[in-house]
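User: Hey, quick favor. My workstation is busy. Could you predict this chain's structure for me?
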Amino acid sequence: MSRSRTRSRASPGDDRVSNKLRIVVLGIMGRTPLAGVTWQVLHYVEGFRRLGHDVYYVEDTGDWGYDPEHDTTTEDGSYAVDYISRIMRWCGLPDRWAYRPAAPGSGTFGLSDTRLSQVFERADALVNLCGATVLRDEHLRVPVRIYLETDPVRPQIEVAQGRQYTIDLLTAHTHHFTFGENLGAGDCRVPVERFDYRPTRQPIVLDWWAPATRTAANGGGGRPLLPDDRFTTISSWKQSGKDVEWNGETYIWSKHVELLKLIDLPRRTRQPLELALCKGDAEAIEQLTSYGWRIVDALAMSKDISPYREYILGSAGEFTVAKDQYVRPRSGWFSDRSACYLAAGKPVITQDTGFGNVLPTGRGLFPFGPPIRFWTRSKRSKRITRPTPEWPRKSRGNTSGRTACWAACWSGRGCEIEGPPRRRPRPAGPDVRALCAARRGQAGIVDAGRGPLPRLAPTPVRRAHRLRHSHRGRHERHPPAVHLLLRSLGASSHPLDPTAARAG
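Assistant: No problem, here it is.
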């Protein structure tokens, strides 16, 4: 059956693509109806939509959903259905979602079964976000099936150990992307076998995190509110069941192990440090508060996306740790939540997972490892270093500081970057349009455009000249991400290569 394409002539500066694809995003918003997971899904769904594609959200994991009102998992899908419906209505896609509860015979909510089958039959690409969905026959009919791994290390080790379930799960996909941007590097301990992983970064819709969104609702009288001086983060306390052993070492999944190593940090700085904790037991909270940590309830602010965003916008920045499973193997993993802090113009101090090999650091993004060195606006004291001069203006929510923070830390589009980046990011990412073309041998691919939404695999650019710095120090014209991705997939060139376009 031939697949139709909606072709449109793009005006200069228009981000929309000329080839409109139908993309299905598989996610876990109903299984985990919490704001952090929801923002991750929304950024992909909205990103594809703003690029001009026809996007659908489908959840069909077969898992019971979590009900935060009763703090329990349940096979009753009513909470998940109401939650997904409200979220998709908020982002302007009220008729582009489907949810199948775990309970047998519950049917399909949102789209009808017939309509959902048509969506899969006509889809050009499927993005299995988090890799949480085991693909079935209806999914396998989609020609491009992207496994988008948000939690690296454990899957790679399970493949190396020969775990058949993980191998079968990955084999069902045609392309594999990971947030572990340091996989395969010389200092990375993660085994990479059988599957060709391509590093990628999460997209962020910048205007969703503009400081102006924090206004009258919190007493601002319609004016943006200024952040206070506390550094915050949002996290669970203990997580179990995902520790993994490799080469005689156990890599721990729970985040509290790393945080306990820094438990006395509030006593060493005048900067207020606050943890929004989910599922923190009373003993742990008492221990943390005795050392000076401020504790707030993460679950209360995570039941909806707005309080979660308000909390980030109201912070001076983020101080957080990463899981041992990301840190010791040097995976290069970076947090969705930390990306949101950066997009909001907030500096981020976080544990180094190896992302410093591919992300520029020192302006807005500050990785640390032992011994801990903490940046603060207070006077210098033992094991405390002074702040960078950019912090005051970045923390006040002005547009230039926010843009500079995002550009320096995340290398997104539409930002000015002063001078060459400290490190050269790897040019790869899940450009679905390029994947579809490479899979079917089609040409006619164009660049994604120059809008406020960062490219799915952003690379440092200058807005005016689109130059990049080569390792020899010369300025070279920066090729669009689709060209780089097509080359990585084995396609030699296509009609819209910059050199070919000039020659034509």
